[in-house]
Each structure stands twice: as C-alpha cells, then as structure tokens.
Design goal:
Strand order of the largest sheet: 5-4-8-7-6
Distance between the termini: 192 Å
Number of strands: 8
Radius of gyration: 69 Å
Number of helices: 10
Strand content: 5-15%
Helix content: 55-70%
C-alpha cells in the first residue's frame, strides 16, 4: 500500500551477510494512466536491486577522512583563534583598557604592545596621544594655577590700592603701604624717595623697619645717587640680585655690611611726572625677579596716585584754610563797614534831628530876640523915666547873652552832624608856617 501511493523511489534492504542492497522501484506511467481512466485494472511497477557493499566501504572511508580532516581543521581553527587572540584581541583589549584609564583620568597610563604590526603602531600612537594629552592637561593645570594666583594677586592688589587710596594723609598712606606690601613680596627694608611738592630735591623716608633712623645703614640705600638717577631718568626698574657680584662701590660696601644682598628700585610716576622712587631690599641674594617687578609696579602706580591725591587734598585744605581766613577778614571788614554805615545812618538821623531841633529852636529864639530888641529900643526911649522908677536893663542883657548862648549851642549841634559852611577868614600865613 505504501509503494502504491508513490510513483517511484528506493529503499534499503536488510543486510544479507556483509552485503548491502538498495532496491529501486518505479511504476509504469502508461499503465497508471489507463488505470486512472478506468481502462485497466492492473498496476505495474518495476523493481531493481543493487549491491552497494563496495560503495558503503568507500563512503565510510570518505567519512573517516572527512572526520579526520574536520578534526584537523578544528584544531587548526582553535590554534588560529588562539594566535589571533594573542595577536589581535589581546592587544586590542590592552588598548581598550588604556582608553578606559585615560577616560577615568589616569593620563599617565601607557600601553606596551610589541606585535611589530599596525597594532603596535596604533599603541605607539595611543601612547604619544596620552603623553601629549598629559602634557596639555599639566599645562592647563599650570595655567589654571597661574590664573588663580593672578586672580588672587589682582584681588589683593585691588585691596591694597583701595587701602592706600582711602588715606589722604601721607603718613597714613606710607603706614598702609608698609603693612600691605608684606602680603605680596618679601623684604627686610622698605623705603621711599619722595620729592616735596614744588621742590627738586628728594627726601628719604624709611617705612620698614619702623625703628630705622636716617643715619642708619639701611636708610643709606636711598642715597645712592648713581642708581637713583638711573631709575629716575630711564624709568626702568633696577634689580640688584647680589651686591657681592655687581661691582661693589663704597655705597654697596656699606649696604653689604648692614646685611643687604638684593635690592629692587622702582620709580613712582604720576600725571605730573616722576615724583619719587620705591626701594625694596632683602638680606638674601636673588630675591627679586619679574614677578616681584610686575606686582610692585602695580603697587607703585597706586602709591603715586595716592601721593598725588594727598597733595591735592593738602592743596585744597590749604586753599580752604586761606579761603576761610579771607572770608573771616572780609566778614570783619563787612562788619566794620556795616558798623560804620549804621553809625553814619545814626549820624545822618541825628543830623536830621539836630537840623529839625535847630529849626524849631531858632524860630522861637528869633522871635524872642526880636521882641527883646523892640523892648530894648523902647527902653532907650524911656530910659530916664524907667531908671528913676528903679528899673534896670541889666536883666535884659543877661537874657540876650543866654539867647546868644542857645544860638551858639544850636549852631554847634548843626556843625557836629552836618558839614559846616565854608567861611572866609583872615589868616596869618607866617604864623601858620612857623607852626608847621
């Protein structure tokens, strides 16, 4: 029944002894067509039997050879994988580990690969990149450190400049300078050569140490005329690294004897020109360099501005004092003028009052004198009869004299409060000349 459903095929038979057979079968196509059409009721199939014992042996031999070759191939592939792992994968893993080290911040990490091929070149390139990256990072760290240091220096310089410029008195300015300079630079001696305002000669001021006197040896550093004039004329900072090796002069010998080894001299420059010089000295050689010059130069700018402000403040204060004195003098003059004006007004008022009083007195006085004259004239006409009656004119003379006295008082009052009228009078010139 199974074969009936299949048109053709083959199947293996059971082994008979050591022989192996394969039976092939195929149906007759024409008869099958007739069978399907119902024209025939028979079905024909052809069977052929083949002995495949030799073929099986050959196949087994081939299978064994292929198995052996496959085993050899597997061993070769395993060895190749091991070789490739050591040649490629392991170096790549080392490169990967190095990359992770660099990524984690260990920039000093290096990869050692000696393969003699492109991977070794890649490792050497990676090491060079890591080295340059480490140098760049170190440069960045140094730059950041310098930037932070400069930021701190700028902030400190700003605070120092603020402290110096906040003072308007030179003593306070130099006291703040001696105190603040210790924050940015080392020194065993600090001094200033300053030209007094309106003068050409410079005076030396020792700021540190505080107990130094003008005749002390450290103070004499300010009196070195050659270096002093060099700084003043060139306006270039002068650094003496070691007095022992820079051509000792008598001045240098005294400085060296006092313990001074290195010096820094900078000029103080303002809008009006060079106004002085700042001097730093230390007991150790090689103390001062470009850093100290840069920092102290900025302080010198602030000191010069503060000195100019102090001088301007002093001038303004002197001007204010002079102005106050002039205002006081002018006020006193105005007060005197006012007093004189008041006195003049009083005199004018008194003159007006005197003139009014004189007018009011002179009018009745004139009438009295007139009536007295009339009475006197009538007295003379009847003098004999009146005298015989015991009357006398003497009381009337007394009255006339008193009236004249009143007239003189009134005239004197007018002369006192008003200009007298010009009157001509005889004068003895010889007597006046003799009097002179």
């Amino acid at each position: 029944g199974t074969l009936r459903n299949r048109f053709s095929g083959w199947f293996a038979t059971q082994e008979i002894g050591h022989e192996k057979h394969i039976v092939a079968f195929a149906g007759v196509h024409f008869i099958r067509l007739l069978h399907r059409e119902g024209k025939s009721n028979s079905d024909w199939t052809l069977f052929l039997s083949f002995d495949i014992s030799d073929v099986v042996v050959l196949i087994h031999l081939i299978l064994w050879r292929m198995s052996l070759f496959g085993l050899i191939m597997i061993v070769g592939l395993v060895l190749l994988a091991i070789y490739l792992s050591r040649k490629i994968v392991y170096p790549i893993r080392k490169l990967q580990a190095g990359i992770h080290d660099i990524a984690s911040g260990r920039l000093d990490s290096r990869v050692e690969i000696l393969t003699g091929d492109e991977i070794q070149d890649l490792a050497e390139g990676f090491n060079e990149m890591a080295r340059r990256l480490n140098e760049t990072y170190a440069d960045l760290r140094r730059s950041m450190k310098e930037i932070n240091e400069q930021t701190g220096q700028i902030s400190l310089l700003y605070d120092i400049a603020q402290a110096i410029n906040a003072a308007l008195d030179l003593d306070l300015i130099f006291a703040d300078l001696a105190q603040q300079m210790k924050k940015i630079v080392e020194f065993d001696f600090l001094g200033v050569c300053l030209a007094p305002e309106g003068e050409s000669n410079f005076t030396s001021i020792v700021l540190f140490p505080e107990d130094a006197h003008e005749d002390s040896e450290p103070a004499s550093i300010l009196l070195s005329r050659s270096r002093f004039e060099n700084v003043m004329e060139s306006r270039i900072p002068v650094v003496i690294q070691d007095l022992m090796y820079e051509g000792l002069t008598n001045q240098d010998a005294r400085l060296q004897a006092s313990g001074i080894r290195s010096c820094l001299l900078l000029h103080l420059h303002s809008a009006s020109g060079v106004i002085g010089m700042l001097v730093l000295a230390h007991n150790q050689a090689g103390t001062y360099g470009e850093r100290e010059i840069r920092l102290v130069s900025r302080i010198c700018e602030a000191v010069a501005i503060a000195v100019e402000h102090s001088r301007l403040y002093s001038r303004i204060r002197r001007f204010a004092q002079e102005l106050e004195e002039k205002v006081a003098q002018r006020t006193l003059q105005l007060q005197e003028t006012h007093t004189n004006m008041v006195r003049t007004e009083k005199l004018a008022a008194s003159g007006k009052l005197a003139a009014s009083l004189a007018h009011e007195i002179n009018n009745p006085l004139g009438i009295i004198k007139n009536y007295l004259k009339i009475f006197t004239d009538q007295w003379h006409a009847h003098a004999a009869r009146l005298e015989s009656a015991g009357l006398s004119l003497e009381p009337l003379e007394i009255v006339r004299e008193e009236l004249d006295r009143i007239a003189r008082i009134v005239r004197g009052l007018l002369d006192l409060y008003g200009p007298a009228e010009a009157r001509r009078m005889m004068t003895d010139i010889n007597a006046e000349a003799m009097r002179l």
